[in-house]
Structure formats: structure tokens, C-alpha cells
Amino acid sequence: MVLNSKAPEGPLAEKWDKHKFNVKLVNPANKRKYDVIVVGTGLAGAAAAASLAELGYNVKAFTYHDSPRRAHSIAAQGGINAAKNYQNDGDSVFRLFYDTIKGGDYRAREANVYRLAQVSVNIIDQCVAQGVPFAREYGGLLANRSFGGAQVSRTFYARGQTGQQLLLGAYSALSRQIAYGKVKMYTRSEMLDVVVVDGQARGIITRNLVTGEVQTHAAHAVVLATGGYGNVFYLSTNAMYCNATAAWRAHKKGAYFANPCFTQIHPTCIPVSGDYQSKLTLMSESLRNDGRVWVPKTVALAERVRKGELKPQDIQEDDRDYFLERKYPAFGNLVPRDVASRNAKQMCDEGRGVGSSGLAVYLDFADVIKRTSAEAVSQKYGNLFEMYEKITDENPYQMPMRIYPAVHYTMGGLWVDYNLQTTVPGLYATGECNFSDHGANRLGASALMQGLADGYFVIPYTIGDYLAATPPKPVTTDHPAFAEAKAGVQARVEQLLSIKGNRTPDEFHKKLGHLMWEYCGMARNAEGLKYAKAEIAKLRKEFWQDVKVVGSGEEMNQALEKAGRVADFIELGELMVDDALDRNESCGGHFREEYATEDGEAMRRDDEYAYVAAWEYMGENQPERLNKEELVFENVKLTQRSYK
Amino acid sequence: MAGSNPNAKPMNLTLKVWRQPNRQTEGSIVDYQVKDISPDMSFLEMLDVLNEDLLHKGQDPVAFDHDCREGICGSCDLFINGRSHGPEKGTTTCQLHMRKFSDGDTITIEPWRANAFPVNKDLSVDRSAFDRIIQAGGYVSVNTGGAPDGNEIPIPKEISDRAFEAATCIGCGACVAACKNASAMLFVSAKVSQLALLPQGQVEAKTRVENMVAQMDIEGFGACSNIGSCAAECPVGISLENIAILNREFLTAKATSNNLA
Ligand SMILES: Cc1cc2nc3c(=O)[nH]c(=O)nc-3n(C[C@H](O)[C@H](O)[C@H](O)COP(=O)(O)OP(=O)(O)OC[C@H]3O[C@@H](n4cnc5c(N)ncnc54)[C@H](O)[C@@H]3O)c2cc1C
Ligand code: SF4
Ligand code: FES
User: Fold this and answer.
1) Which residues 273-332 of A have a C-beta within 8 angstroms of B?
2) Any residues with CB less than 8 A from the CB of A191 and at least 6 apart, and which?
3) Where are the alpha helices (DSSP H) in A500-626?
4) End-to-end CA distance of chain A, in Å?
5) Which residue CA neighbors atom 12 of ligand 1 most closely?
6) CA atoms within 13 A of residue A548's CA, in its CB half-sphere
7) Sheet with A401-410, edge to edge strand ranges
8) Containing H/E element for A323?
9) Which of B148, B120, B144, B118 has the alpha carbon at shortest distance from B219?
């Protein structure tokens, strides 16, 4: 299949306006005759569900959480970007576009990214009107900070809880539509399949997580807003329930999966402390504005630290290696996430890591405390320091933090065109669940922006174009495709329960995570990837022979839920490895050791790899087929990133 | 293995856990032993250990709600040794660490107890009553699209900061569980005062407070008798001042109601 991005012709700055004019409109009196299913009520889903209901469509929204307010978006800390230029520091829509394309290492689609930058300004207005309490200056106007090494201050924030406040805003808009009866909300309902009728998405199958009841739901169109798949690595900064099931089931029903190997590893997370570790906690990127990253200069010194014979404070200035400042004098501690992460790993691989495991580097605030005061530091980072102390029992005002990179975000996702439609007509993907805007690396504070852009300002227009061409006849679940999909879901539940093996879903998940982290994590090479592929295939087989789940499908059964998600993670893991093997270059979060410059920096290969890899499911045990969307850059010049 | 505290000794504990198969069936406390618990584990990681052990033995793991494990999503909700979210002040269950306990301890773990929060299974309760209270008015009625420029609504920083403080409620329900009347006043007041403080929320202030309070009563939450256990147990420090604001808003609304319904 030839992938058509459907990006409109014409000058970049005019594409979206032109497109909005050209899309077909649904007659206002007809809107109530259309049903739309929205799966997921995080930022992308709650914003979409509320906005579509406001327009008059009948929306059915689904979440596996007990309330829409608990979606993983709630945990975002740092902020949300918007090209408001309130600070008069030279920001503009074009600059935000440019930074995002460049930050993504030139692997995103120009037209989408430009639109994102354009609507970013509307997001802030919308959220303020909802009562989102963004940080403000004493004069009463909105405050900004610079984030993730950006050279302008364009990040809006609500202390360290921006995601929480934005999600509660979207949740309030959604709640209002639920009260009006325009949205029917299904909580604790997990989507387990998409129903495709005559080539069009026409509904979903869900399982009620309290009663176990498997249900069918029909609609004229289906929007997936089901988040990212970082938990394929077992340990990540994502919430525990984040999973790939919705996207993966859609993939198996015909939606292509794009750039699955593009994952973001965040440099500043609290390191693993033991085998029991269930998740990793992010320490916001903003800490690198003031903290200095270092390790002991020699392996011998590091060894003594690891054994507890030396404290970090005992190590003299001369015996410390501030490796980011040394290697990247221009950007220092503020190099992008992928560069900071890889360097931390390299230090630990050299044997200079700290902490009892040796898998940590220091993030030190002694200098800034001396330069200003502990008070001042607490004003800025108090809640993060507190969280760090709660988890590690160490006081970061007195001791440097120990940090290590962790999986944080997935740039890959379902392939979508300019309308956010997948390769299945009538099936849309928004937010982290699609691949669209961040290329091979996402900039800080841009995921919240994308989720809300998709939900509030893009999908309400583009879905109308599809619906206007669909007859407003009622849809039902009578078609045999519904019964068939439902039977498939039930059979799978039964199968998982009938294996009665010896290993728990978590044990399989940990094993998978370990393989992914070792061979498809911060640094990858062909040999390791091939090994991982074989091992994951083996793991998949073992899973279906040896997984252990007790109880029944007709009750709340968290181990059963987990087993289904792990089964999908294993299959997705295999595809990620395939994708990483196909991409013989290094770009953004994808670092192939074979493709590095002499001093070890990433080497992009634009001649051969300036494409989106969109994988097509070909059936059980068949290799997936690679489809390419060539990326065309008309408005930016491709350059090698340099932070020296 | 342990990260911060290599010398900390693993602990053995007795757990008394509420088990209840579903809403319709009676529940009871069941005793379990867990061994070799590292003080660096979080409370929920300790329960993970118990659940893996149960699963290996072919027994039903304990159901409990959790997700972010960072103290922000409001999912976790355990009543530990008679206290909402356990012994540590200003901490959600997921952020509570085992170093707060000692080797040989017996720990009782129950779900939130309130008529408005029926048990789904074991430690998981249904808190959808909170959602319905928000649906009754916890929003500003603006549709997507028509908003004025964000800086056209200047708001004094002190006001904005106070609204933010109220807005940080994570909707966990610890306040209800801590209250002997199972009142939801602290939760409701947090949303009412966030929006009452901000100019955006003024237009609908009166109907909002009336409708949210009415819904709270319909859901079967108890009355507030101003004892303050709610605020004492709130993991994010939502203050009693919000209840005072709610009461003031409510009285004004009653006196000059423009709620035509
Ligand atoms: C710790 C942390 C901090 C972050 N900080 C920032 C930041 O400062 N700035 C920034 O821009 N980005 C940040 N991010 C990234 C950002 O938070 C996410 O990318 C974004 O919130 C994703 O939003 P979403 O709506 O796409 O998905 P989510 O918020 O993950 O929502 C997914 C929804 O889908 C539902 N769902 C999923 N699968 C199913 C299914 N099968 N059936 C039913 N429902 C389903 C879930 O219940 C949920 O409602 C951060 C991420 C992390 C992990
Ligand atoms: S007020 Fe506090 S205790 Fe009550 S729901 Fe909100 S955060 Fe939880
Ligand atoms: S699990 Fe999210 S607050 Fe505890």
C-alpha cells in the first residue's frame, strides 16, 4: 500500500487553514445522528471526547481507570510548550516548528509539526478559560520557563504538576458533557479489540474489569487515545497500567505501526534499588538547569564509593569528572535527553558508576546552594527534593542525587495521516498513541502540547470530513464481525486461564523488559538485536505454555488483565527489534553503535533513512511488511545536531 | 542490592488483609506472612511480593488500586493500621516505604470504609461518586474554541497560587475514609474554592456550589462536623480553609440563589 500522508499542498503556513476550509462539514442537525467512540481519557482522549460532544456528536468514552482523572497524563511534571512569545524573546510558530523538527532529528512530517506549533497558542487560551491555574507573575500575567535546553521561554507550567492541572481541566470539560448526556462514560472498561466492517472501523470490544463482562459497542468512527508503550521495558517512568494493547489490537486489525523502535530514555530518574522495583520515578528535566552531573574520575575511586568506603562529599574536585561539561562545553549539563542518557550509560559501562549497583551518576546541587541558598533551591525544586528523599531516604541538600536514565516516552505509534486517521478508515489515533509529531526524539513539554492539540483542535475538524461522507444511518452491533470479535476476545481470556503454568505474568514481563533494555535500549547493534529477536520469540512460545493465572474471567482479576497486556508487549517487542534492525543509522533516541562518528556521536543517514517505517501486520507468525513514507523537507535544512 | 541503605536488614511481617470476593459477598480479614521485605521497598511493592507469592501457590492475589506510584494519580487507597494511607503524614500509600515499619510488625490493611464507596473486590473500592459530584458542577462552562487570549484574564499571583493549592486534590478519598461521618466536604470544597477564587469560575459560582453539595448528599456522604480528620490525613495537604470558603459560598448562594432549577 502506498502511504499517502494527505498533507495539503501549498505553503507550510497556509496548509492547515486551507485544509480546514476544504474538509467537508457535517450538517449541525445531523451531528446527533453520528456516534463516535473515544478510547482513552487522558489529555488526548478527554479533550477529544469533550470537544466532539460539544459539537453535537454522540460520544462513548472508555477508560480502564476507575475515573478519567487518573490517566497517565496526570503525572506530567514540567510543562507545556506554546508559541505565545509572551516573553518577547523571539519565539514564533516557525521557531517552535523548527525546534521540534530539529529536536526530532528530522524524522517527523513537516506539515503536522507546523500545525502543532500553530494550534499550541489556542491550547493555552482554552486551558486558562477552563480555570487551569498556571503559574503567574506578580503582575498577574502568565509565567514561562525555558525547558529542555530551548533557547526561548515558551513553557507554561503549574509548579511541578502541569499534567495534573491540564488533565483536570480536560476532565472537567468531559464531566460537563457527561452531565449533559452527550458523553456516555465507561470506566474500568478495557478495549480488547477493534471491529472492522467492510474495511471500516465500526466499533470495539471491551471487558468490564469489575464484572468481567465482555461487551460490544458500535459507532460511525473510533478514536484511539490510549497512550504510549514505554512499559514494554517493564521498568519505566510510565504509570504501572500503561500498555500497548489497544494500539496493538488495532495494528492486528490493519492499522500500520510506525517507527516502533523510537523510544525516549530520560536521563534523570531515580535509579533501580532492587529486584522488587516496580517502576522508576522521574526527576524533572528542570533539575539540570542547576544541578551538575559527575562521576569519579577513576574506576578505583568509583569502586570505593560503591562499597560505601567513600562518600561523594569526600571526593576532591580534581577527582571528579563533570563529563557533560567536559565533552559538550557549549551546552554542558543541558544537552538533549538522548545525549545525556547515552553519556551516563557510557560512564557506568566504563566502571565509573556510583551507588551500590554502579548504575548511577551524581546530580549535584552543592554549587547552586553555595551560590544562592538552600532556601532558594527549595523554592524551585522543593517538591522534587522531597519526593527524592521519600524514595531513597537521602537528603539531596546534603548529598548529590543519584540518577540514571530510564525509559520515558515512545515516539513511535500507530501511523496516521494528516487527518490523524490510521490505515483503517474510520479509525483515528491521537496523543502518544500515534507516531506523528516528534520524529526520533521528543522535546520536553511537547507531549502535553500534542495530546491537547490533537484532542481539542485537530480531531474535531478532521473526523467531520470522514463522517460527512458516511451516511447518518444508525449503526448496530448486529453485523457478524461483532460476534466474531467478541468470541475472539472471550476465547483468549479462556486460553490465558487454561494454561495453568508455573510463571506469573510479571515474571514474563520482567524478562522481556530486561531483553529490551539490554539490546533495544540506549545503544543497539545488529548482533544484539538479532539475539534479542530470537530470545523474544522463545519467550513468546514459553508464555503461551507456561503462564500462570488463577481465578476466572467473570470477576475482577488483575493477574488476568496483566497477562493479556504482557502477551501484547511481547509481540510488540519483537516488532521494535525488527524496526531497530532495519534502521541502519543513528537518529534521536535510536542509537546504533555501528553508525557513530569517530568521537562516538550519532550518525544519521538521510539519503537512505529519511522515511517513516510503517509496519503492516501480515498474520500470525508471519514477518511484518515494511511500508515507507518518504519524508520531504521543504522548509528546513537537514543538519547534523551538534552540542559541542 | 539495596540502593540507599546497604545495611538495612530485611524484615518479616504479618499482614492482616481484608478479603472480599465482590460487592455482594461478605468479606473478612485474612492473615498472611511476608518474608525478606527490604526497607527500601514501597508499601505497594511489598504487596506485589505477597501477590506473586499467592499466585505461585495457586491462590487469588489481593486486588488493590494503584497506577502512577508517584503520589499523583489518586488511585491508591489503603487504610493501613487504622489510618488513611498509613502512618506517614502527607504521603499516599504508593509513596509510603517499608522503612517506616519494623521487623516483626503486624500490619492491618483495609479498604476505604464509606457507604458511598462500595467495595469492588478486596481492597479496591468504587469512587465514582466523586466523578458524579464533579459532573454536577465542577467545571467552567466553556466550549473548545471561543476562549480569549490567556493574558486577557490577569489574575493576582496570590489568588492564582491559592487556587492552585486547592486544585492539587488528587481525588483519592482519604478524607472520606478518615472522617467518622464519611463526609466528602474536603474533596468538594477543594474544587468549589479553586473555581470560586478564580474570575473564570465566578459566573457559575452559585449554581456550582449548590449543585455539588446536593450531589454529595445524594451520594450518601455524611455531614461535616468540623473535626478536621480529613485535612490531617489528606496526602497533599488540602486545607480546612477550603471548607470555610465552601460554607461561605453556599450561604451566599442560598441567600441569593440564581439556580432556577
Ligand atoms: C513522569 C512523566 C512526566 C512527564 N512530563 C511531561 C511534561 O512535563 N511535559 C510533556 O509535554 N510531557 C510529559 N510527559 C509525557 C506526557 O505526559 C504523555 O505523553 C501524555 O500525557 C500522554 O497523553 P495521552 O492522552 O496520549 O495518554 P495517557 O494520558 O496515557 O492516557 C491514556 C488513556 O487511555 C486509556 N487506555 C489505554 N489503553 C486502553 C484500553 N485498552 N482500553 C481502555 N482504555 C485504555 C487509559 O485508561 C487512559 O485513559 C511525561 C511523562 C511521564 C511518564
Ligand atoms: S481532599 Fe485530600 S484526601 Fe480528599 S480526595 Fe482530595 S487529595 Fe484525597
Ligand atoms: S498510585 Fe498514583 S497516587 Fe498512589
Assistant:
1) 273-279, 281, 308
2) A39, A62, A204, A205, A206, A226, A245, A246, A249
3) 505-519, 526-546, 558-582, 606-609
4) 42
5) A447
6) 17
7) A263-269, A401-410, A361-364, A292-296, A320-321
8) helix A323-327
9) B118
At A134, list the grid cell: 498556571
- What sign for the dihedral angle of Cα B187, A130, A132, A59? positive
Query: Per-residue confidence at A362, pLDDT binned at 50, 70, 90?
Result: very high
- Residues A72/B67, Cβ–Cβ less than 8 Å: yes
Q: What was the pLDDT predicted at B119?
A: 98
Nearest to A261 by CA among A232, A285, A235: A232
Interface of A with B in 33-62 (CB under 8 A): 47, 50-51, 54
Dist CA A256 CA A109 (whole Å): 16
Choose among B118, B83, B117, B115: nearest CA to B100: B83
Query: Which listed residue (A95, A107, A109, A337) is catalytic?
Result: A337
Stronger pLDDT, A376 or A560, i.e. the higher one: A560
Residues of B in contact with A78 (CB under 8 A): none
Predicted local confidence at residue B4, as pLDDT: 46
Task: Determine the Cα–Cα distance for residues A394 and A312; give it in Å rounded to an integer.
Answer: 13
Contacts of A275 in chain B (CB under 8 A): 1
Q: Cα(B169)–Cα(B236) distance, rounded to whole angstroms? A: 7
For residue B2, is pLDDT > 70?
no
- For a ligand 3 pocket test, name from B75, B84, B96, B124 the mutation site with the most ligand atoms within 8 angstroms of its C-beta: B75
CB contact under 8 A, A129 and B91: no
Cβ–Cβ under 8 Å, residues A217 and A232: no
CA-wise closest residue to A118 among A153, A90, A94: A94
Average pLDDT over residues A318-337: 93
> CB–CB of B67 and A274 under 8 A?
no
Are residues A134 and A445 in contact, defined by beta-carbon separation less than 8 angstroms?
Answer: no
CA neighbor of A259 nearest in space, from A582, A619, A634: A582
Instruction: Enumerate residues lining ligand 3, CB below 6 A.
Output: B 66-69, 71-76, 92-94
A30: helix, strand or coil:
helix
- Structural element, H or E, at residue A374: helix A374-392
Mean pLDDT value across residues A267-280: 94
pLDDT reported for residue B8? 72
Q: Which residues of A touch B124 (CB under 8 A)?
A: 556
C-alpha span between A349 and A220 (Å, rounded): 53
Q: What is the pTM of this model?
A: 0.97
Helix (H) or strand (E) holding A114: helix A110-130
Report the nearest-CA residue for atom 7 of ligand 2.
B169
pLDDT digits (tens, 9 = 90+) for A612-624: 999 999 999 999 9
Q: How far is the CA of B226 from the centre of ligand 2 (A)?
A: 16
Closest alpha carbon to A342 in A438, A441, A453, A266 = A266
Question: Crossing angle of helices B157-167/B185-197, nearest 10°?
Answer: 150
> Is position A337 annotated as part of the catalytic site?
yes
Assign residue A149 a region (left: φ > 0; alpha: ψ between -120 and 50; beta: otherwise): left
**What's the pLDDT at B257?**
64
| Distance, first Cα to last Cα, chain B | 63
Which chain A residues are Cβ-neighbours of B55 within 8 angstroms? 504, 548-550, 559
Distance, CA of A36 to CA of B148 (rounded, Å): 29
**Residue B166 to residue B231: CA distance in whole angstroms:** 12
Residue ranges of alpha helices (H) inside chain B are 43-56, 128-135, 157-167, 174-178, 185-197, 199-202, 205-218, 229-233, 241-255
| pLDDT (average), residues B127-135 | 98
Q: Which of B203, B189, B175, B208 is nearest to B246 (CA)?
A: B189
